[in-house]
Specification:
The protein is α/β, with parallel strands linked by helices. The protein folds into two domains: 186 residues, 3-Layer(aba) Sandwich (Rossmann fold); 161 residues, Dihydrodipicolinate Reductase, domain 2, CATH 3.30.360.10. The protein is built from eleven helices and 16 strands. The longest helix has 17 residues. The two termini are 37 Å apart.
Length: 388
């Protein structure tokens, strides 16, 4: 999604008319939706510095902050000055608050910056999280957390040492359809959960076009990405199985394959499939791919008294939960939010954590756990695990 000036004006008008709330009235607070009190607002908006101007930041997170009740875009970091200046003009970011990667550490002196949003290639997450922490700024980092377990631990240590918050951007854990599924499962409405199935993937191309520029896909480079579809979109399936069950996998078995020998998969795998057994006995079967057409993924949960199905399960909008639970109660819950509301929810929740000194639900330890399981999946499939 590319915002034009006309689009930006429309968003601004929407914000003025709706008090910047893209949520339906029944779910006006993403903090309340995850069962936490809203806490205290210090009377000003959280100042965000965006690190990396790509599709997810420009197309989703930045518009999400613009529509939030808590945040304000105050600085940008990019290696492309002209692109940064265009975005700065759209969001009224002053020119002196445009940084590049060589002078990034100067954000420490910028009192308007409270937090950074890191939307860089995976291999750069650790460096800029650690540098942001050293600058005294709170960090919301896109997933996967990093490309090695060692880097994950260093990120956690740096943020703890500097007493700043670290949150990994697991947006689905703050989304009402996903939260409804968790509520139904935890309430016993499905009886004893027996099985979970999940899949997510898409047909990746060697190059992609963004902002009018065609570039090679860094996701196909092992050094940049850390792995193939598992670390990119398979992580959604893994994380969903964990938050739906509330358990950690006790046993993992996996396989991987490359089917299309067309030059795309010389460094990373094309397909991954894995099973997990949880301590309660729940079995999960997951798969991910870079070789098949994308559909937004799915989740299927089977219990002794009912079932749930979410399809699509992981896109930025359009999630749909259906099912039948105890007492033949039919479930039919379409997504009440529209893009970029999931990103607004993330930003608002994180601001609440900062203002009230609370640890985010999806903190660095949550990111590390996923990366640890991903390493185990790769090793079970006979591939190289993540660096310890």
């Amino acid at each position: 999604m590319k915002l034009t000036r006309r689009d930006f004006s429309r968003l601004g008008a929407m914000a003025a008319l709706s008090s910047a709330v893209p949520y339906p009235a029944a779910m006006a607070s993403p903090v309340a939706s995850v069962g936490e009190p809203a806490g205290q607002n210090p009377g000003r908006r959280l100042g965000w510095c965006i690190v990396g101007l790509g599709r997810i930041s420009m197309g989703h997170f930045m518009p999400g902050v613009q529509l939030s009740q808590t945040g304000k875009l105050v600085a940008l970091v990019s290696g492309h000055r002209e692109k940064a200046e265009r975005q700065a003009a759209l969001y009224n970011v002053p020119s002196p608050s445009i940084y590049d990667y060589t002078n990034f550490d100067e954000i420490a002196a910028d009192k308007d910056i409270d937090a950074v949003y890191i939307a860089l290639p995976n291999s750069m997450h650790a460096e800029y999280t650690i540098r942001a922490a050293h600058a005294g700024k709170h960090v919301l980092c896109e997933k996967p957390m990093a490309t090695s377990l060692e880097d994950c631990r260093k990120m956690i240590e740096a943020c703890e040492k500097k007493n700043v918050k670290l949150m990994i951007a697991y947006r689905c854990q703050y989304q009402p359809v996903q939260l409804k599924a968790i509520e139904l499962i935890r309430s016993g409405a499905l009886g004893q959960v027996q099985e979970i199935e999940s899949a997510f993937g898409f047909d990746i191309q060697k190059t992609f076009v963004f902002d009018g520029v065609r570039s090679p896909s860094w996701r196909l480079e092992k050094k940049m990405a850390g792995g193939g579809p598992l670390v990119d979109v398979g992580i959604y399936c893994l994380n969903a199985c964990r938050y739906l069950t509330g358990e950690e996998p006790a046993e993992i078995k996996a396989i991987a394959s490359v089917i299309d020998h067309d030059g795309r998969f010389t460094e990373v795998e094309e397909n991954d499939a894995w099973t997990m057994r949880f301590p309660s006995g729940i079995l999960a079967s997951c798969s991910t791919t870079y070789g098949a057409a994308g559909t937004g993924g799915f989740l299927r949960v089977k219990g002794s008294k009912g079932w749930l199905r979410m399809e699509p399960a992981f896109p930025y909008q359009g999630m749909h939960l259906t099912g039948s639970v105890a007492g033949d109660q039919a479930i039919d819950m379409p997504d009440p939010w529209h893009d970029p509301a999931q990103f607004t929810a993330e930003a608002d929740y994180f601001a609440n954590c900062v203002w009230n000194d609370r640890e985010p639900k999806t903190d660095g330890e949550e990111g590390l756990r996923d990366m640890t399981y991903i390493s185990e999946i790769y090793q079970s499939a006979g591939l190289e695990g993540l660096q310890k």
